[in-house]
Amino acid sequence: MNYTNTLKRALALTLSTAILTLSGCGNSDKPEKPAPKAEVSAINDGGEPSGSKILIAYFAVAENSDVDAEASASATSDGRGRMKAMADMIQIETGGDLFSIRTSVEYPGDGAKLIDYADKEQKDYVRPELTSHIENLDDYDVIFVGYPNWWFDMPMVMYSFFDEYDFSGKTIVPFNSHNGSGFSNTIKTIQSLEPDANVISDGFTVNEKDVESSAEDIAEWVNGLGYSKE
Ligand SMILES: Cc1cc2nc3c(=O)[nH]c(=O)nc-3n(C[C@H](O)[C@H](O)[C@H](O)COP(=O)(O)O)c2cc1C
């Protein structure tokens, strides 16, 4: 059986909405790997050291796209993108620091092109170059890690991320959004990539259409894990 065709067939239904919505957006050029962007350091979006030991690292394609975040396939009604919206909700509950996983790859803003691009990236085992780096990992003992489900797996940039860091002795808390597949096997994959980390199996996963209304569920989940700031 041809694996790619099987995946494509399975995805055709779940992704059709995104493709239909997005076809016609963006340009028709083949995606090219652009020059690396400027390096972005660890971010505390509040501008002040929080003193928290929680880091919320997330990959938002809207922040790594060849179009403005608001025009990207991931745009939420306020333009942040789904994974950033979830990361912000977790930040509000935990008081942790935000860290945006950035890459020199500029992903196609056009949804159909993005799907093909990500398919090829996965088949080629690409490890996209990271342009943001956690400078102060020792400060954190709990790392929330957020990513969309791409082709029943994490985006390949997440493999670059787990290649770069040794999270031994730390707790990893996965969160994700999807269009039907939930986490797929990604939590087990993370545990295999970080064998000496405590990877929480009770991650938070939400369908793309419910992301914007998930603040209360996220608050409850964070509280249940014992990571609420209050
Ligand atoms: C390249 C690509 C591949 C995807 N593959 C899957 C998949 O295998 N299973 C699934 O449930 N959703 C899949 N989706 C849907 C996304 O997981 C979902 O739209 C998610 O909310 C995207 O988050 P984001 O908008 O912050 O990137 C895929 C989306 C893209 C763009």
Count of all domains: 1
Bound compounds: flavin mononucleotide
**Total DSSP E strands:** 8
Mean model confidence by pLDDT: 82
**End-to-end Cα distance:** 52 Å
Biggest β-sheet strands, sense, barrel: 6 strands, parallel
Tally the helices: 6
The CATH H-level homologous superfamily? Flavodoxin domain
Plain-language structure description:
The protein is of the alpha/beta class and 230 residues long. The chain has one domain: 3-Layer(aba) Sandwich (Rossmann fold), CATH 3.40.50.360. Helices cover 32% and strands 15% of the residues. It is built from 6 helices and 8 strands. It has helices spanning 3-22, 82-94, 111-123, 156-164, 186-193, 215-225, and strands at 40-41, 54-58, 97-100, 132-133, 142-148, 171-178, 198-199, 204-207. Strands 2, 3, 5, 6, 7 and 8 form a 6-stranded parallel β-sheet that branches. A two-stranded parallel ribbon has the order 1-4. Helix 2 crosses helix 6. The chain is globular. The chain starts with a helix and ends in a 5-residue tail after the last helix.
Key structural traits:
6 helices, binds flavin mononucleotide, Rossmann fold, about 230 residues, globular, two-stranded parallel ribbon, 8 strands, six-stranded parallel β-sheet
